[in-house]
Design goal:
Elements (H helix, E strand, L loop, with lengths): L2 E9 L3 E9 L12 H8 L3 E11 L3 E13 L2 H4 L2 H14 L8 H22 L7
Antiparallel strand pairs: 1-2, 2-3, 3-4
Length: 132
Amino acid sequence: MNRIGIIREFKTAHFKVIVEASEENYLDLSWYEDSYVAAGLNSGEFIAFTAHAYVEHDALGELSEDYLGGCIYRSLEDFADHKECGRQNREYAAKGIDGRCGSYFKDMIKNVCTGARKRIAELNKTKVYVRD
């Protein structure tokens, strides 16, 4: 897959969380009832991509990853919509309105961080014997 770009990257002392976009090679538009999305993709109004989130450790390399294909958004920034979604959810809660929006971006970050923590815990339980 050809990488389109980095959607977001977070760094700590020893870890990096990266969410990147790659070209979507197997886009299925058959479930759209009108041609609005296809026309938007053809005009450049929309982009289609596969999101790939992963956690890297300085010494251990990649610890966890998650993929989401078939993403269609106006921009990579629109995919990282967790702040707007959170604002909307707070407004709904304040007004007593049911229903909340979710964020694929936020879910992917949560998934890879949880996976990385589990992997580190597994590695900490691993006994290694060094032979002289």
